């Protein structure tokens, strides 16, 4: 019985972890073009009624288009913020309906109760169906790795902000971002602090650090873009409601980096 349990954990959790997070198979971690000074900011766990509007103001001020991986339950609660992201040209991706780890879910639950449900909510608000997905904590189960990536681009990150814990000031986060952002980077930050393990005030410091980072990188000639642009695939403009075609399905499955 114990052997069977260990085998299940290895096959369902550990192998997908090693393949996706260590080897980068089946997921996107960074853009292919490492020559150009292009990279993407991504923001997880929102929308948040307090921090997301401030973040959107900041991004607008610096002309930044970013990608938001949102929770379906919060999108339902704050549709006006989802609409604003869409209207201001940001990409909206899926981060499950609630912040639940995929290792605790069956592939069917991930696909229908979290990803499909959240895609429906976003599509109802914006008229455009999301094409990319980031699992909470970046953890996929074997079913996700085998099947979900055929319908959605699974985007993880190359630069982790470690921004969910409040520190004495924003300086460590600022320096971490400035030292780690390289051409092609996908940067992970959070615009909400109510996820288990996070500090509620942490996004305040993220906003402060981000402002400094944007000021510095602007002078260095960096360009910020959505992950779909960075990864050179195009989101479907004006995607009509009730359409069942998933753009990602038309792109051949391959090993991504
Ligand atoms: Zn998250």
TrEMBL record:
Source domain of life: Bacteria
Domain NodB homology: from-to ranges: 37-225
A biological process term (GO) from this entry: carbohydrate metabolic process
Record GO terms (molecular function): hydrolase activity, acting on carbon-nitrogen (but not peptide) bonds
Pfam families tied to this protein: Polysacc_deac_1
Cross-referenced InterPro entries: Glyco_hydro/deAcase_b/a-brl (IPR011330), NODB_dom (IPR002509), Polysacc_deacetylase_ArnD (IPR050248)
PROSITE patterns: NODB
Protein name: Polysaccharide deacetylase family protein
Organism: Paenibacillus baekrokdamisoli
């Amino acid at each position: 019985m114990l052997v069977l349990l260990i085998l299940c954990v290895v096959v369902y959790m550990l192998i997908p972890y090693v393949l996706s997070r260590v080897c980068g198979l089946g997921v996107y971690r960074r853009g292919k073009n490492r020559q150009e000074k292009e990279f993407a900011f991504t923001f997880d766990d929102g929308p948040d009624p307090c921090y997301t509007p401030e973040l959107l103001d900041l991004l607008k001020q610096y002309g930044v288009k970013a990608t938001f991986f949102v929770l379906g339950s919060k999108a339902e609660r704050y549709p006006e913020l989802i609409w604003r992201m869409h209207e201001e040209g940001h990409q909206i991706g899926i981060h499950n309906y609630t912040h639940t780890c995929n290792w605790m879910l069956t592939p069917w639950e991930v696909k229908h109760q979290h990803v499909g449900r959240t895609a429906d909510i976003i599509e109802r608000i914006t008229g455009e169906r999301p094409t990319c997905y980031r699992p909470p904590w970046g953890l996929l189960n074997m079913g996700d790795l085998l099947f979900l990536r055929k319908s959605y681009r699974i985007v993880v990150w190359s630069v982790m902000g470690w921004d969910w814990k409040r520190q004495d000031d924003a300086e460590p986060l600022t320096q971490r971002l400035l030292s780690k952002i390289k051409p092609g980077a996908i940067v992970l930050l959070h615009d909400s602090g109510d996820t288990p393990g996070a500090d509620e005030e942490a996004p305040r410091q993220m906003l402060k650090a981000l402002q400094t980072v944007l000021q510095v990188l602007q002078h260095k000639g960096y360009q910020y873009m959505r992950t779909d642009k960075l990864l050179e695939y195009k989101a479907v403009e004006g995607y009509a409601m009730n359409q069942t075609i998933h753009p990602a399905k038309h792109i051949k499955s391959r090993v991504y980096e």
